[in-house]
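Please decode residue identities from the backbone states below.
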């Protein structure tokens, strides 16, 4: 063996051609570290024992042909060196895996192009190995990631050319074979979306993070984020699409939940601002009264006006009582949702009965006629809190009775949009439409001279909201009032 840059196996059984090769290497200083084999069998033995970069082989060998060398599956670049007139064999050899071929001529001019041919073959082999390694890494990556990777033909009903396991799993199929039997349109909840996406990709050639409504094999809907690129041929025509897809259904749910929480927090902050303002405003009123009458009390005491001093003390006491009531109602409102009884399944009729017992004296003294529906459902609530709601609503109906008609209060429920809606309805004086929202504000009073702090309906609203329900009023001045609310209902078969 001669020292050189490339290890070359020369398979040649003709001594003349062997000598010619030796002279060529020696005379040109070619960077070949070569070994000569005279037969297929010898070549096979040498290849099993030594490492080579390239094989140069004659067509006809002592015990076979160059095609026997191809059958050894060496993965080495093979250059066929054959006699003149063997072009047909050379073409066949190229189809069988030869990297190139050279035609022997009497003047041995083929040695002039041999170095470039060898260099080109080895470079191509290195490029091929690098590509194979890259493809193997890519294949390993796509086989193991949880993101779907696929290739499909052009068109809304295109067929799949390739898909990784994650893609097959994502859509609920058992195997690639089963997955490849469907079309692209089969993945969409609405096939028209497949047409639109195909048109967009044809026009833009690249689409990133497109959110599409897709469906699994069993029809389960989900949202997929797709990024795709259109592959073109030499003429610029699109021949297929390569794409990746990620199931972002949970992410979208989390985004919606985060948005809901942020909106709720925003609403709570606004509610806290209103609450703080209302409390500070309404507590200031009795405080101003106290301060004013303390000053008057000092003056009256200095002037020894005993009767006036007693009147001053009475006003101070009333203002203190009012402040205590305001503080108690404020504390009660703040405790709702933080201090509560565990919710339980209870017939709504039982809660109504408890509320009527608590308001029995008011009902009797007012002469109100009470009617309760028979078909009230079972609810899942904090029993005491909902009874408190009913007591408050019944009390308001009695407080705002009309003098011109016999007072009537009806308690019942109806179904609306698959939701159970409860109501307390009266034939009292009614409420102007512009006050339907205001009455639920803390310390707001329809009648400024009436008893109480005006916190009742604010507390009622808070109790209903803690139960995940809604509350609203339908009323007009002089036509009575109906308060509607919703709470969780126990489903029955």
């Amino acid at each position: 063996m001669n020292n050189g840059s490339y290890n070359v196996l020369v398979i040649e059984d003709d001594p003349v051609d062997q000598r010619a090769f030796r002279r060529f290497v020696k005379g040109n200083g070619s960077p070949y570290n070569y070994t000569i084999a005279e037969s297929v069998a010898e070549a096979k033995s040498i290849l099993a024992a030594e490492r080579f970069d390239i094989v140069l082989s004659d067509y006809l060998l002592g015990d076979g042909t160059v095609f026997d060398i191809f059958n050894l599956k060496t993965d080495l670049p093979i250059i066929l060196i054959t006699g003149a007139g063997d072009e047909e064999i050379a073409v066949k050899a190229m189809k069988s895996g030869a990297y190139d071929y050279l035609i022997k001529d009497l003047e041995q001019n083929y040695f002039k192009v041999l170095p470039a041919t060898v260099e080109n073959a080895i470079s191509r082999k290195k490029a091929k190995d690098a590509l194979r390694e890259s493809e193997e890494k890519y294949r390993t990556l796509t086989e193991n990631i949880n993101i779907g990777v696929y290739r499909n033909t052009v068109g809304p009903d295109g067929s799949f050319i390739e898909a990784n396991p994650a893609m097959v799993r994502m859509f609920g199929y058992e195997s690639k074979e089963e997955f490849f039997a469907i079309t692209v349109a089969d993945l969409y909840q609405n096939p028209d979306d497949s047409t639109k996406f195909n048109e967009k990709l044809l026009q833009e050639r690249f689409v990133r993070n497109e959110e599409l409504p897709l469906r699994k094999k069993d029809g389960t809907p989900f949202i997929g984020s797709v990024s795709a690129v259109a592959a073109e041929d030499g003429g610029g025509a699109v021949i297929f699409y390569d794409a990746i897809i990620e199931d972002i259904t949970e992410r979208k749910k989390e985004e919606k939940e985060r948005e809901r929480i942020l909106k709720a927090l925003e609403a709570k902050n606004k509610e806290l601002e209103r609450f703080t303002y209302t409390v500070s405003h309404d507590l200031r009123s009795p405080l101003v009264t106290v301060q004013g009458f303390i000053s008057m009390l000092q003056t009256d005491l200095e002037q020894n006006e005993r009767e006036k001093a007693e009147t001053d003390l009475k006003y101070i006491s009333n203002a203190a009582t009012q402040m205590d009531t305001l503080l108690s109602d404020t504390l009660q409102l703040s405790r709702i949702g933080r201090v509560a009884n565990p919710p339980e399944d209870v017939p709504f009729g039982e809660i109504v009965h408890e509320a009527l017992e608590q308001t029995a004296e008011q009902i009797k003294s007012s002469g109100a006629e009470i009617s309760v529906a028979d078909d009230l459902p079972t609810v899942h609530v904090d029993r005491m809190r909902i009874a408190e709601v009913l007591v408050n609503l019944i009390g308001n109906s009695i407080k705002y009775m009309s003098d011109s008609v016999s007072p009537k209060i009806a308690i019942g429920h109806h179904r609306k949009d698959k939701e159970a809606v409860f109501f307390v309805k009266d034939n009292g004086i009614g409420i102007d439409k512009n006050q339907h929202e205001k009455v639920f504000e803390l310390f707001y009073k329809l009648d400024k001279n009436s008893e109480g702090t005006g916190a009742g309906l604010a507390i009622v609203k808070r109790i209903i909201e803690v139960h995940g329900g809604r509350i609203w009023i339908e009323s007009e001045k002089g036509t009575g009032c109906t308060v509607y609310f919703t709470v969780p209902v126990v489903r029955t078969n």
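Observation: The chain has a mean pLDDT of 85.
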